[in-house]
Amino acid sequence: MRSKEDKTAVDLHFYITSLLRVQSTAIIKECHMLRPRKIKRYCPSCKKHTIHDVDKIKKKKASELKQGQRRFRRVTSGYRGFPRPKPEGREKITRRVGLKYTCNVCKKSHQPASLRAKQFEIGEKK
Ligand SMILES: [Zn+2]
According to CATH, what is the number of the domain 31-122? Predict the structure, then answer.
């Protein structure tokens, strides 16, 4: 059993985190990311700046051998497995957007670290 003091501590924790979240939303506010279809950037294999095609990374089916999938299988096995209740008050306001850049000269592609954005679009500015 959880004592009353514990519960108030947890409530306070959520209150503080919610305050912080409000501040962060104020900072992010208009987080509409627009990326062009073609961009000039550094190619690690050509070792110079070339024109790249920008693509959004599609989510692939998770491999059963990956650590995350193994953990998921272990945690959700047995009683109280799946589906689980979603954690309340901890939703994220932004989504992670992965981008793939394909070099037009050597046709090699590279994926730098993904960014977070509220809205994301690839195309020309209207
Ligand atoms: Zn290249």
Answer: 3.10.450.80
Share of the chain above pLDDT 90, in %: 29
Interval 58-84 mean pLDDT: 89
pLDDT of residue 118: 84
> How many A from CA of 35 to the centre of ligand 1?
20
114 C-alpha to center of ligand 1: Å?
Answer: 20
Alpha helices, DSSP H, located in 29-91: 67-75
| Cα–ligand 1 centroid distance for 29 (angstroms) | 36
Pairing of strands 119-122, 32-35: parallel
Q: Which residues surround ligand 1, an ion (CB under 5 A)?
A: 43, 45-46, 103, 105-106
To 10 degrees, the CA torsion angle through 101, 104, 107, 111? -10
Band (pLDDT 50/70/90 cuts) for residue 48 is: very high
Domain locations in the chain as residue ranges: 31-122
